[in-house]
Amino acid sequence: MKQTFSSILPSSMLQTTKNTYDAIRRLPQLRDAYLHPWRRESIRRLKAFKDIHKGKRAFIIGNGPSLKQTDLSKLKNEFTFGMNRIYLLFPELGFTTTYFVSINDLVIEQCADEITALPIPKFIAWHSHGHFETFPDDMMFLYTTYTGPKFAYDMARRVWEGATVTNVALQLAFYMGFRRVNLIGVDHNFASKGDANKTVVSTGDDLNHFSANYFGKGFRWQLPDLETSEIGYQKARDAYRNAGREVLDATIGGKLTVFPKVDYNSLF
What we know:
The chain is of the alpha/beta class. The chain has 7 helices and 11 strands. The chain has one domain: sialyltransferase cstii, chain A (Alpha-Beta Complex).
């Protein structure tokens, strides 16, 4: 039946139908997304980050295999955003990222305790708040959604996920006022193939990330949706450009073509 609708309805109508369905499905959650004590406190905390780094530069660190070819020691004194299981690198680096972002429910469910223990500001998807027993002083819940593509200028309100945590990090960096954002480790290329967003269970070493243990054997994760993520990247590129800011891609050997490329070592 799904294939039949897809073949009959125009893509724009299918997207509208999907957005409407998602909006209706979210209605019961909408009240808590703004009025739950944890979200109300998150909104208060988020406002303190508005333009906190105005005019500065930041690095958003993806988790691709290219990180193994990247001299991350250069980032020790930089403003950085780490995502999902980036903390597996912290012992080797000898320092943490400035900020941490995670929005994928499967990652958060399986790693909630590790995330809670991180000693840095943490930005987490509200739809995953049930995986946390406590609400640390350095944690903020973002009201993220899957549909309705739009770049968020106010992180205290609705934020479109754009099929990747990197898009949420780009919106956070803009909200914080960064003038230039450099991407590294955003390989935009996965060895694992299959239907976008399909949940799979890892059967061995992880070939898609910087560590074989990132999504190691038995870890549940979702296959990437590269097409939707590119829509989000395009919206981020345009939002930064329109504001007189820029996003540069310093990923070594990355396959993403949305942002201007720059040599990583030339940034220092």
